[in-house]
Amino acid sequence: MPVPDPGPIAVDAPSGVADQPLMTQWWRDLAFVHWPVEPARVAGLMPPGVRPDTLDGLTYVGLVAFRMYRVGWFRLPGVPYLGTFPETNVRLYSVDGQGRRGVVFRSLDAARLVPVAVARTVFRLPYMWSRMSVSREGDTVTYTGTRRWPGPRGAHSRISLRIGGPLARPTELEHFVTARWGMHNALLGRSLYVPNAHPRWPLHRAELRTLDEDLVAAAGIDGPLGDPVSVLYSPGVPVRFGLPHRPAGIPTP
């Protein structure tokens, strides 16, 4: 059976997605750092029925740091303490047998133990409990984290970037690594696609001041990646997640 062409990158969320949300949250003060890789290098890290999504023959590894704010269920108000914390993700870019683009999370470091335990137990997401902070001084934002549990203990990241001007017209690559309207994940041996929706990203160019991390290697992506080819900042967006879909062929940035 031929594999569907996912078509052009959709820069806006599909209409009707998550009109009845399973979960709501805000993503704030985001840093997007990306490296290109050959698809074969990460194909084995995808859930069943999911392959690397590509742009001009390459796929990308993303390191995304941000502040999660007020995670809530359904249409209930978000939780101020347990639902608000720094987070840093290692993610890959995916497409399934129905042509749906998404992300695959290889790790999600977060600073609250209870949400980490729930996400690992209920959703089988690779959340890690870490000591983390996000600070801003003028136009410079710094994200730090050191893993506590489950491991590898001590895996760390320090990202510092200077925020530049807004992007009036993001490039195709900048849309490719940010305009993602779902997540692919494996649960009980089967793949799931979890849709999300949010306003179009307000993106800024950014200058990377510091990058010291081993989260990417700890996530199973071995070997040197070189210098990042894309560094972006966004003040953030409100997000809604819809109900999971089966089968995939697959919630956070």
From TrEMBL:
Pfam families: DUF2071 (PF09844). It comes from Streptomyces polygonati. InterPro entries: ADC_dom_sf, DUF2071. This is YqjF family protein.
